[in-house]
């Protein structure tokens, strides 16, 4: 009986071992696979653009603005285009084609001295957009540099604060007027005048954000490990500032165009020979009360309004998309 029981136990153990060999395997240590489990394929910019694409209106306006900018550059090379500065003469009367309403020959009509409004509006849009983008880029470069140093370096906090107080208390309108009087009227004069005080708001916003972020644990740990300050700013702080930078930049473009319109309105803008949205709106403003000539104000005003609204919506949408808190 005992031998029979032992035989049964041996058979049972063999069957269990065979079953275990089929169902289970011994685990082996693989350092490469262990590292892969901690790997994340997260990309900041890929997540930003993925979030931005969800806003269909902003995507449509972005495509529209890109198309508008491209059209302003290719418009002079299209067939049957007229010069924005040439004064056109009526072949039958020998007189200037003054204040001609929109027709087949003049799509947007002509102005008071016989210049084609269609070509002048697109030339003016190109000029105004150049001013707007130049001012926005310069403001971002100066504002980010000053704001980063202002918020991150405690040694520079006091002198930059005093500089901010001085510049911020100078009215922007006075700076624009003085620069227009001191320098020769032109595109460079307007850009310089707008950038003298335009970087202040950008620097202040960025400084406030950096003060909030600079003493967080991961930044303190990086500083303790000897990471240079510029790397901490670029790697740890910049992703959280992109939303603020893009929002301020998108608002700076229409603001610069509006300032150019204001300078032209008070007679200190670009020369009349240099088409711009400010010049065109100022010329149309004089004819606003004449119903037959009101088109000279309506067309450039529509272009300016579309650009302003588009940049505002695109800037807000991209600012939301660039915020890491909205990345899932």
Automatic annotation (TrEMBL):
InterPro entries for this protein: BP-dependent_transpt_permease, MetI-like, MetI-like_sf, OppC_N
PROSITE patterns to which the protein is assigned, alphabetical: ABC_TM1 (PS50928)
CDD domains per UniProt: TM_PBP2
Membrane topology: Multi-pass membrane protein
Subcellular location(s) per record: Cell membrane
Highest taxon above the source species: Bacteria
Transmembrane segments: 57-78, 129-151, 163-183, 189-206, 240-268, 297-319
Matches recorded under SUPFAM superfamilies: MetI-like
ABC transmembrane type-1 domain ranges (all copies): 125-315
Pfam family, one: OppC_N
Chief location: membrane
Protein keywords: Cell membrane, Membrane, Peptide transport, Protein transport, Transmembrane, Transmembrane helix, Transport
Family (UniProt): Belongs to the binding-protein-dependent transport system permease family. OppBC subfamily.
PANTHER family cross-referenced by the UniProt entry: OLIGOPEPTIDE TRANSPORT SYSTEM PERMEASE PROTEIN AMID (PTHR43386:SF24), OLIGOPEPTIDE TRANSPORT SYSTEM PERMEASE PROTEIN APPC (PTHR43386)
Protein name in UniProt: ABC transporter permease
């Amino acid at each position: 009986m005992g031998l029979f029981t032992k035989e049964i136990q041996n058979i049972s153990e063999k069957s269990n071992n065979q079953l275990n060999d089929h169902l289970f395997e011994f685990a082996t240590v693989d350092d490469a696979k262990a590292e892969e489990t901690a790997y994340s394929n997260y990309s900041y910019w890929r997540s930003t653009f993925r979030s931005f694409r969800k806003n269909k209106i902003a995507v449509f306006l972005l495509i529209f603005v890109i198309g508008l900018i491209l059209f302003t550059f290719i418009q002079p090379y299209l067939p049957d285009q007229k010069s924005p500065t040439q004064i056109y003469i009526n072949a039958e009367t020998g007189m200037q084609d003054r204040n001609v309403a929109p027709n087949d020959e003049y799509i947007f009509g002509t102005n008071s001295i016989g210049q084609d409004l269609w070509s002048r509006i697109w030339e003016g849009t190109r000029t105004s957009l150049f001013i707007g983008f130049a001012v926005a880029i310069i403001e971002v470069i100066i504002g980010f540099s000053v704001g980063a140093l202002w918020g991150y370096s405690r040694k520079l906090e006091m002198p930059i604060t005093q500089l901010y107080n001085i510049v911020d208390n100078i009215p922007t309108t006075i700076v624009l007027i003085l620069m227009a009087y001191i320098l020769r009227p032109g595109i460079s004069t307007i850009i310089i005048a707008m950038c003298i005080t335009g970087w202040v708001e950008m620097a202040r916003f960025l400084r406030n954000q950096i003060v909030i972020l600079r003493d967080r644990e991961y930044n303190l740990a990086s500083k303790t490990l000897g990471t240079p300050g510029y790397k901490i700013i670029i790697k740890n702080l910049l992703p959280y500032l992109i939303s603020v930078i893009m929002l301020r930049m998108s608002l700076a473009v229409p603001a610069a165009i509006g300032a150019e319109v204001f300078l032209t309105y008070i007679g200190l803008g670009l020369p009349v020979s240099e088409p711009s949205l400010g010049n065109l709106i100022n010329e149309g403003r004089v004819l606003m009360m004449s119903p037959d000539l009101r088109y000279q104000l309506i067309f450039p005003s529509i272009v300016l309004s579309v650009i302003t609204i588009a940049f505002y919506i695109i800037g807000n949408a991209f600012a939301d998309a660039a915020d890491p808190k909205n990345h899932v």
